[in-house]
Amino acid sequence: MPFDPLFDTAHTNEMNAVKNDNSSEPPKKKRITLVDRARLHLRDEILSGRLAPGQRIHLNETAEQLEMSMVPLREALGSLVSEGLVTAVRQRGFRVSEVDLDDMADIYRLRLILDPLAVELAVSQMTDQEFDAVTEAYQAIKGAKTKEISRADNRTFHFSVYTPCRSPWLLRIINMLWENSERYQTLSTSDKIVKKHHIDEHEKIYRAIVERDPKKAAEAMYQHVKATAEALVSAFDEKDPS
Questions:
Q1: Among candidates 53, 147, 146, 155, which has minimal Cα distance to 104?
Q2: Given this structure, which CATH class describes domain 100-239?
Q3: Which one of 1, 56, 105, 213 is separated from 161 by 20 to 30 angstroms, measured CA to CA?
Q4: Domain 34-96 is of which CATH architecture?
Q5: 17-66 pLDDT, tens per residue?
Q6: Which residues sit opposite 123 in a β-bridge?
Q7: Under a CB-based contact definition with an 8 Å cutoff, are residues 47 and 186 in contact?
Q8: Domain locations in the chain as residue ranges
């Protein structure tokens, strides 16, 4: 199975599988708590653009919608604040974090370093099972028809490639950067940004992985992230020609 885009649960399972490699018992799945459910719901609302930058998050309405008390909801929002997706406003609750070009440039500056590093580490030690997961994710992304499906499949493909790097810290940091960069893609994108260059670039990444060439795969990922950043800057410039 390809890497699940819900990073927290899937990554925990992955690490458990490595730790228990010699055990006859399968790893236990992490139980989804109310805090997890609230965090995943709000994260999806933000990344999809349904909650817009600067928009106030109404706690009573959200708690009622999710059928939970304020306690897990506030804890979930605190987690999203630490991830940079939400801003706590003193005495005024929580708002979706604003977006700007400087922030986007900072995110992609780091991704240009860390994404290729994860790929190089991953390809050098990828198991046959992990390679099969990458292949499955690659085939899914080629067949994606809508922007929403492309968004989910794109994430699955990327993290199926990153996960075999075997570095929990690197994966956590990339995950945080990914989610914040995904907001910019959602807010500024047209299908041309999602699909125009991604199809060819994903193929180059995949072919390098098939060849088991870590350096080539890392370079292909670097060029992919760089092209995405450039496309986003162009899209924002078109929106704000001043």
A1: 53
A2: mainly alpha
A3: 105
A4: Orthogonal Bundle (1.10)
A5: 433 443 334 445 568 899 999 999 999 999 888 999 999 999 999 999 99
A6: none
A7: yes
A8: 34-96, 100-239
